Amino acid sequence: MKYFKIKAATYNEALMELRKQHGDEAIPISHKYVKEGGFMNTKFLAKEVVELTAALHEKRQQSKMKAEPKSSFDVKVDNDVISGMLNKSAMENRTTVRKNTDNAASNQTLNDLINNINSMNSNLKKENEASKVRTEPVQSNPVFENEKSIYEKEFADIKETLRLLMEKEHETREIKVDKTPEELSSYKELLRKNDFDDAESDKMIHEVKNSLSREDMKDKFKIEKTLKDLVKTKIVTSGPIEIKTSKKKVVMLVGPTGVGKTTSLAKLGAHFALREGKRVAFITIDTYRIAATEQLKKYAEIMKIPVHVVNDQKEFKSVIDNEKSEIIFVDTSGRSHKNTMKISEIKSYADQIECDFEKILCISATTKKSDVMEIFKAFDSLEVNSVLITKTDETSFVGNVVDVADQYNKPISYIANGQEVPNDIAIAERDAIAGMIISETPY
Fold this sequence. Notes:
16 helices; 51% helix
């Protein structure tokens, strides 16, 4: 007897190869599943094959060698054969993965490998569906299902390994990223204190770095000037309130509670009455806060400016129509940005005005950026024309309001920097605001 071994993807394929090489005289003795072809002599990406041990009588083998080979043979095509076809395709695909993995460093990225694996899974499923169409319905084969689950697990292991490699590569890249130069680190921190987010801060610092030479990076004045110019691109100003000839002007101040609307209104009224020589009148629809109304009346008495307290929209429209002043300032009650109903009430007053009309949103510089975003969103229905930043004397940072105003395309009209009437208010200027942000200088 002569013994020999044949390896194939499945037992049926090994049996077919045995019949092809040695005919019906060969006797299959045993078979087992073995691993071969692992990546770098490991079990990673190794394929599983069947090793068939068979025997053949010496004399019969010689007579077989003299005889002409059979032109055909009968093999029953059943589930095992179909399974073998699918498994063979799967192993060819896995071999491709192994080759791609070996050459990944020079030919493919890790992302390409994962895409290949997904494509192989898809192809394997398509072949499985095609085999179901070409063959008669058969009963479930436990061996095939077991082999299928093994391949699916191996695919999952491959994908997980590649994912870990990608994460490691990403961490390596992050380590190699250039750090902020020491000369610019304090300015990056300054931008963050002004509530510019990390992405925006990094972008501006990167532009400063690319704009300056190594020698210029040693000059603090040049660094500040370059960064200031970048910040100025985010600032839009509207200029002062304009009064058109022969037209009545109405200016309404709106905003949340406690931002200083009444004081700001008194400052603007004093400016136009005492410095511009205009006929000015005050209207307050803030009947909720008695103290605010009394405060405005006191300012009006000192500056000899008429003041009207109205309780409804009809009375409000009547006062607007009959008032002979050139500019009328309207003080509104402070409303929480979360109270949309009360903001709608203010809008109902604004809708009564038919002459030249301007709405200014007052926001405190001390408000955190997330709340500033909510305030802009809530008062957006009023379609405000500009922004008045208050309480800049209570903080060194105004970037929170500037950045959000830029996002909402709202220009800045005035800066209020104290409680003194009429002095502590100024027309907003880009250079001065940028200077507050970069140099922490007061307005």
